[in-house]
Amino acid sequence: HWWILLLDLPAEMARPDFSEVMSVEILTGTNASLGEKEFELKHITLTGKVISKANFYLAIIITWLIFLFIIIGYRLFQLKKAFNDSQQKQSYLKEIANQDQLTQLLNRRAIDKLFTQMQKNWITKQESYSLIIIDIDHFKDFNDNYGHAMGDEVLKILADCLLNHSRKQDYVGRWGGEEFIILLPFSTSDEAVLNAERLRILIENLVLSDGLTVTASFGVSTASRHLSIEQTFEQADV
Question: Which residues have C-beta within 8 Å of that of residue 197, sequence separation ≥ 6?
């Protein structure tokens, strides 16, 4: 009241406007005595659109369901990621278990498994196969005269040559030391000999660091009903 009288406000501004009120404070005036006071609120009227209790609970349920689905989705994502990581790790471990670390060719363990399987296929299905064994000539001289780094370079260069110039269906591996082996599925003896001669010439024409060259000896064998797996290998071993 004192505010209206002091400012001489017009009648239309004499009543309070609560259209944008965020909070309401009740004042008792400066002459009120100290102590506890009681105020009784008789009535509150809300205007505008008010959400019903049913819709309010429904909104809570939907919010919780969305939250639950997010948690489940995130958990599934984590599990899938962990599974993929595990698969990649197993694939990597399997790969390095079957791979020669220097040349990146199949190692002796992997070749031995393939060799055994081809022999079984030959016995049960008559699926012919051949093998070529390659032995680098005078490899010890490379290590003795030029060091092991040059020896490793020779092995890697020959490995790339054998891998890049073999048939797609052939298996190229390092048998050990300076020995390499190639398994040729569905191959006759003549086909194996032609492949061996072609690879021998390619290796003979390779030029290493400092203009060095290298040669290799080749042995060829083809599966036969008269030969065991050991005899087939020994026939090609040079």
Answer: 218
